[in-house]
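As noted in the main text, all predictions were made from sequence alone. Below is one such record, for NADPH-dependent FMN reductase-like domain-containing protein.
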Amino acid sequence: MSSVRVVDHNVKRGVQVDMGEGDEWPQLRERILASDIILLATPIWMGHPASVAQQVLERLDADLSEMDDQGRPVMYGKVATVAVVGNEDGAHKSVADMMQGLNDVGFSIPAQGGTYWVGEAMQTVDFKDLDEVPDAVATANAALARNAAHLAWLLRRQEYPAK
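Prediction:
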């Protein structure tokens, strides 16, 4: 298991697999292609996913036309989950927007594949500042992990049909 903060990389704007010199997306994309499960995590800003999360979806858009050797989208057989944090409304909509984009590209979404924590609106308490994870969030996170692992296991054993 590994994590990447996309914001720490030079990921150019655009909807191509490689946007040219200095673009670090191709290396990040290779990590995605090597993964069975991804978690796209984003804070909420003004009721919407952060622009970096949107940028990830935009870069994944290039994979709509990328096929594997059996004619399927290259992200078929991969599981995607979503996590949202923030101190304002918009968690459900943000999860839905991210999941739809990931599914459009070919990722499979497990049951209860989204999780979130939002503090009191317009306050300064962030998830990272909590002394412990609230029980409801821990339960949702455990279900997400369990269901994502199960779906990935199933997809490894029984791939989607070829064209």
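The first strand starts at residue 37 and ends at 45. The radius of gyration is 16 Å. These features were considered when defining construct boundaries for the mutagenesis experiments described in Section 2.9.
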